[in-house]
């Protein structure tokens, strides 16, 4: 099973050039059954990444462009009146797909955010008095543009916490830029192949079970818990960490560190989790779950700097 997933990752790396971190985190989220918030400037293959992933799976894909005039029904669907028989019939919205891209999620108003939050958290949507279950394979990848903030709505903390990972993507290196140019020319000439054998949902389920079986020792588990507790009781560690943190991470951070570190260890052909696996995913799991103090913001301290300090002061043994 690991061979199929590794083939998938290798294939994606040839199509999403220069964004290996994003590709790896998408696969980690897929194996962990969670949602991903991706932050990056336009043109960094965020949309292409999730769309290409869907083409490699036995799954369907839909993109929702979030705008200020979007309504909840545009996401969930709505009851349509049928004059012929005088009844209402529910018409499913785009959220009823396996992989959903919520593009520029912070441009939608609160009611739309609320509808999406229910879908992400409960794997269901409510329309009127009825509740409708979403597909078993359901992953939302939302994007945010960090450059332009005019006309946007800040995501509520409750919704941010529902994202398993918050991934930041940056510009590719010079060598990758040349490869992107070559790939673009190939695609313009229709000189490209599709993924040979899409991964079935049954195969994905088996992979997820294998990930859950990855061993985590008691010592590593204690380290994981201490990292999260340190964000809430930073006074114990004093110094900069205590001055920079206002609110710590929720128990969802503990759960996310557990499942994602196991998925990463499994991807690296290991049957156990090491502290390095936890440290590797810590930034993507914690950066949207901690709230910085006024002092930190006034001094230009970022969430990533706080997490760097957290990993420095919390001993792994």
How would you portray this structure in words?
The strands form 4 sheets. The protein has a 5-stranded parallel β-sheet. The two termini are 33 Å apart. The chain has helices at residues 2-15, 20-32, 46-55, 72-76, 110-122, 157-162, 174-188, 201-212, 218-232, 239-244, 251-267, 275-286, 294-298, 303-313; strands spanning 36-39, 61-65, 77-82, 87-92, 99-103, 124-127, 130-133, 139-144, 165-168, 245-247, 291-292. The longest helix has 17 residues, at 251-267. By secondary structure, it is of the alpha/beta class. The protein has 2 domains: 2-169, Rossmann fold (3-Layer(aba) Sandwich); 214-313, Magnesium chelatase subunit I, C-Terminal domain (Helicase, Ruva Protein, domain 3, Orthogonal Bundle), CATH 1.10.8.
| Domain unit count | 2
Global shape: globular
The largest beta-sheet arranges its strands as 2-5-8-1-9
Give the topology string: H per helix, E per strand.
HHEHEHEEEHEEEHEHHHHEHHEHH
Mean pLDDT across all amino acids:
91
Unreliable runs: none
CATH class of the largest domain: Alpha Beta
Cα-atom radius of gyration: 21 Å
Count every beta strand, where a strand is a DSSP E run of 2 or more residues: 11
> In percent terms, what proportion of residues is strand?
15-25%
Provide the descriptors you would attach to this structure in a database record.
317 residues; Rossmann fold; Helicase, Ruva Protein, domain 3; 2 domains; two-stranded antiparallel ribbon; 14 helices
């Amino acid at each position: 099973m690991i061979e199929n997933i590794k083939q998938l990752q290798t294939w994606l790396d040839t199509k999403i050039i220069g964004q290996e971190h994003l590709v790896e985190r998408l696969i980690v989220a897929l194996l962990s059954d969670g949602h991903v918030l991706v932050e990056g400037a336009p043109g960094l293959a965020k949309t292409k990444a999730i769309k290409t992933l869907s083409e490699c799976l036995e799954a369907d894909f839909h993109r929702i462009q979030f705008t200020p005039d979007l309504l909840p029904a545009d996401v969930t669907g709505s009851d349509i009146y049928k004059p012929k028989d005088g009844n209402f019939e529910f018409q499913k919205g785009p959220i009823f797909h396996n992989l959903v891209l919520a593009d520029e999620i912070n441009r939608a108003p609160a009611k739309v955010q609320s509808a999406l939050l229910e879908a992400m958290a409960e794997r269901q949507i409510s329309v009127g008095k009825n509740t409708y279950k979403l597909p078993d394979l359901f992953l939302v990848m939302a994007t945010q543009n960090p450059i332009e903030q005019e006309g946007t709505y800040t995501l509520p903390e409750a919704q941010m916490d529902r994202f398993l990972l918050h991934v930041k993507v940056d510009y590719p290196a010079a060598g990758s830029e040349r490869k992107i140019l070559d790939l673009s020319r190939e695609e313009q000439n229709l000189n490209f192949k599709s993924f040979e054998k899409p991964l079935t949902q049954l195969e994905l389920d088996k992979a997820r079970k294998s990930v859950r079986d990855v061993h985590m020792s008691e010592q590593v588990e204690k380290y994981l818990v201490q990292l999260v507790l340190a964000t809430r009781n930073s006074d114990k560690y004093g110094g900069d960490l205590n001055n920079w943190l206002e609110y710590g991470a929720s128990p969802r951070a503990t759960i996310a560190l557990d499942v994602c570190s196991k998925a990463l260890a499994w991807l690296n052909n290991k049957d156990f989790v090491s502290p390095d696996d936890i440290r590797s995913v810590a930034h993507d799991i914690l950066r949207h779950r901690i709230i910085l103090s006024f002092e930190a913001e006034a001094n230009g301290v970022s969430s990533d700097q706080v997490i760097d300090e957290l990993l420095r002061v919390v001993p792994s043994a």
